[in-house]
Design goal:
The protein has 11 helices and no strands. With about 230 residues, it is mainly alpha-helical. Keywords: DNA-binding, Transcription, Transcription regulation.
Length: about 230
């Protein structure tokens, strides 16, 4: 008869949620194993049996974050009807997430592991890959907006996608530095003006400026003395 292992004496999902909150508040490298075990209320044997390592725990915590507390921005991007409104909703949701983070830690994906020791370089590359996925999703939504006529046909989609991903990261940094909800909303409004200007330029009738210039030139010639 097979011998069953000792059942876990803790709730793994609850422990993972505690770890996510701690990583979100402090970042990967500043979070010590002792801090994690205390927050998760488990001992070292239980920790390693359940999660394997701090790195593996962090990867799971990031996945939990993306599926729960950090899901709002990409959800807004995907579900808001008009492309321009979708970008704005994404940025506002990103600001809300940054403000809601423990100890104003900002976005876990953006700031959870930026600079690191050499042994953590593979994990940093994993986080970079997640950020590239965000750029790709923004690119996809902008491109869809161009195809459907919601955005100008001449929009530089790759550049614009990178720009708005950068704004999202900047919102996290500003929240971490103590910016208020009103200040972050102002940053979003300023960022949206870039897309609005592109749309305004594209909507101007062709040749309007040239025609106006010709009329002004004719009027000036009419005022000249013979």
């Amino acid at each position: 008869m097979a011998v069953r292992g000792r059942p876990r004496s803790f709730d793994r999902d609850a422990a993972l949620a505690q770890a996510m909150s701690l990583f979100w508040a402090k970042g990967y490298e500043a979070t010590q194993l002792a801090d994690l075990m205390a927050a998760m209320k488990i001992n070292p044997p239980s920790f390693y049996a359940a999660f394997g390592s701090k790195e593996q725990l962090f990867r799971e915590a990031v996945e939990l974050y993306l599926a729960t507390r950090g899901a709002g921005s990409m959800k807004a991007l995907a579900e808001t009807a008009h492309a321009r409104d979708a970008i704005q909703a994404m940025l506002l949701a990103s600001a809300d997430i940054a403000l809601a983070s423990p100890s104003r830690g900002g976005c876990l994906v953006s700031l959870g592991l930026v600079n690191c020791q050499s042994q953590n370089l593979p994990l940093r590359e994993h986080m970079r890959a997640l950020r590239r996925e965000t750029v790709a999703l923004i690119h996809q939504r902008l491109a869809q907006g161009v195809v459907e006529g919601e955005l100008p046909a001449g929009l530089d989609v790759p550049r614009t996608a990178t720009y708005y991903a950068m704004v999202m990261q900047g919102l996290s940094l500003q929240a971490q530095d103590g910016a208020s909800a009103e200040e972050l909303a102002g940053i979003v409004a300023t960022a949206m003006s870039a897309l609005d200007q592109d749309q305004a330029s594209a909507s101007k009738p062709a040749g309007r400026t040239g025609g106006s210039t010709k009329k002004q030139g004719a009027a000036a010639r009419g005022r000249r003395r013979p």
